[in-house]
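In response to the reviewer comment on reproducibility (Comment 2.3), we provide here a single inverse folding case reported in full, input and output, so that an independent group could reproduce the run without further information from us. The structure tokens appear first.
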């Protein structure tokens, strides 16, 4: 029997006006935005709905904003009778999975991801870290490139293994620049610097992970009611200890998104619903397997499309 998965996007998908249609027309949807404001003690919802984009994109704002919109949309789908068999998220998006799987309350998750963003922002001074997307290169060869540059004194490592031919590297500014040049010399099609505020998913984020670990101990984490696919090792997260470990390790570990998708395919998932703004994850899923069905829900029209297709 075919299975269904909810997937939640990470940073980069945020956009001013995200979730506006739902919030304007539905009291329950609006309640999520109001809860986020109350939990954080500032008007995140105003930033989400009115901008400016530059402020929304700051990592400590983007993380709770994406979480709020993603969880609100997933809740709308579940209200309509669409429940996932599995769930996964890309980096920050994994917290959307923790909430809909009832491992974390929404209020606790909003506070944690805001702090996660603050700690990640503080871990490396601006301008000292970088990330770049490397296109058209084998993962093993790119790892050799990163290891060579790191051995020579400039840390750089694989950060996001998104899909065949698209891998993001992360590390010091010099390390990423040198690895980008060397990757192209060794056959990569392109090396695209990313506009990010830090070297996420690299060893340079260990300090942020250590601070986050203290916050995680302050909240109650429950056994998930829906199996969650891990970013760190693409295994199924099924107990509290595994989830705590995941929350800490995924800050500095590579996001194994391609393997996450392959794991869900292996488990029988044939339909993926991206909950949140944009279509990035759906595109990556299709690059892994074009035969699966993907849907993106970000407004009333896309919600209706999914409900009609799956429940009609």
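Designed residues, in position order:
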């Amino acid at each position: 029997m075919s299975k269904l998965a909810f997937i939640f996007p990470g940073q980069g998908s945020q956009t001013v006006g995200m979730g506006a249609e739902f919030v304007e027309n539905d009291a329950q949807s609006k309640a999520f935005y109001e809860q986020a404001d109350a939990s954080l003690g500032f008007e995140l919802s105003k930033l989400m709905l009115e901008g400016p984009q530059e402020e929304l994109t700051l990592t400590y704002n983007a993380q709770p904003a994406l979480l709020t919109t993603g969880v609100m949309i997933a809740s709308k789908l579940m209200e309509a009778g669409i429940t996932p068999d599995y769930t996964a998220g890309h980096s920050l998006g994994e917290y959307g999975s923790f909430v809909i799987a009832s491992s974390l309350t929404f209020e606790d998750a909003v506070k944690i991801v805001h702090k996660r963003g603050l700690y990640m922002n503080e871990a490396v001074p601006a301008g000292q870290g970088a990330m770049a997307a490397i296109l058209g290169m084998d993962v093993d060869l790119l790892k050799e490139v990163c290891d060579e540059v790191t051995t020579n004194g400039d840390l750089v490592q694989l950060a996001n293994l998104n899909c065949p031919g698209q891998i993001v590297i992360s590390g010091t500014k010099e390390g990423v620049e040198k690895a980008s040049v060397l990757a192209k010399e060794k056959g990569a099609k392109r090396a695209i610097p990313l506009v990010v505020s830090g070297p996420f998913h690299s060893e340079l984020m260990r300090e942020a992970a250590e601070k986050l670990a203290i916050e995680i101990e302050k909240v109650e984490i429950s056994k998930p009611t829906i199996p969650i696919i891990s970013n760190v090792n693409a295994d199924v997260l099924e107990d509290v200890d595994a989830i705590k470990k995941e929350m800490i390790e995924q800050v500095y570990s590579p996001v194994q998104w391609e393997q996450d998708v392959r794991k869900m395919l292996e488990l029988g998932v044939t339909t993926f619903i991206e909950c949140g703004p944009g279509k990035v994850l759906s595109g990556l899923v299709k690059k892994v397997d074009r035969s699966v069905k993907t849907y993106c829900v970000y407004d009333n029209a896309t919600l209706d499309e999914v409900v009609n297709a799956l429940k009609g």
